[in-house]
Amino acid sequence: MTLYESSGGNKMSKLESLYRDVLSELGEDVSREGLLDTPARAAKAMQFLTSGYETNLEDIVNNAVFTSDNDEMVVVEGIEFYSQCEHHMLPFLGRCHIGYLPNGKVLGLSKFARIVDMFGRRLQIQENMTKQIAEAVEEVTGCRGVGVIVEAKHMCMMMRGVQKQNSMMRTSVMKGAFRENQATREEFMRLVGL
Ligand SMILES: Nc1nc2c(ncn2[C@@H]2O[C@H](COP(=O)(O)OP(=O)(O)OP(=O)(O)O)[C@@H](O)[C@H]2O)c(=O)[nH]1
Ligand SMILES: [Zn+2]
């Protein structure tokens, strides 16, 4: 991380320095008490919220793929997530449901949530995030099919712009048997209550 000299002689990151400029441009007095640590806090928060760029599938899965002869559908529903839209850098948040048909291997339960977080903690559009989650599950399990449904509310639709408070976006990606076989897709939808 590039470090800069602040007026108080402390080292600060480039991101922190940029947040100070943002606050100044917004007309704030960056020397007032309540804002003294804000650039550093905002930089830290944004780094966490985009930390998904620094993780990769192999590391988060950590070999937690187990042999199993259970070839029935597995569903993990209601995985909450927070992401940010790449257009406004405002949050969108909601729930993700994942179903797959194992093909001799099952994935450690927590890893579904880790996969969702990895793609959520990036600048995203919901459609792409949904597809990336489906492709990741397919890649690590070699499953016969996968379905992912994401339901989310977008702050850029609520706090600004059209200011619609009650709309929700639902996206889905179906691959393999979930795409080709209507009964499989319907079983998934029924299990997640849709
Ligand atoms: N499809 C999709 N659109 C998104 C997502 N997040 C934000 N958007 C949309 O991205 C679009 C950007 O449109 P622009 O016209 O370039 O930007 P804008 O003037 O700020 O648009 P408004 O939100 O309509 O005020 C808007 O329609 C947003 O609602 C997403 O995850 N998926
Ligand atoms: Zn947006």
Automatic annotation (TrEMBL):
Signal sequence, renumbered to the chain: none
Keyword Phosphoprotein carried by entry: no
Keywords: GTP-binding, Hydrolase, Metal-binding, Nucleotide-binding, One-carbon metabolism, Zinc
E.C. designation(s): 3.5.4.16
Matches recorded under InterPro entries: GTP-CH-I_C/QueF, GTP-CH-I_N, GTP_CycHdrlase_I, GTP_CycHdrlase_I_CS, GTP_CycHdrlase_I_dom
Amino acids binding Zn(2+): 85, 88, 156
Pathway recorded for this protein: Cofactor biosynthesis; 7,8-dihydroneopterin triphosphate biosynthesis; 7,8-dihydroneopterin triphosphate from GTP: step 1/1
Keyword GTP-binding tagged: yes
Catalytic reactions of this protein: GTP + H2O = 7,8-dihydroneopterin 3'-triphosphate + formate + H(+)
Ranges of residues in domain GTP cyclohydrolase I: 17-192
Cited SUPFAM superfamilies: Tetrahydrobiopterin biosynthesis enzymes-like
Family: Belongs to the GTP cyclohydrolase I family.
Subunit structure: Homopolymer.
Protein name as catalogued: GTP cyclohydrolase 1
Gene: folE
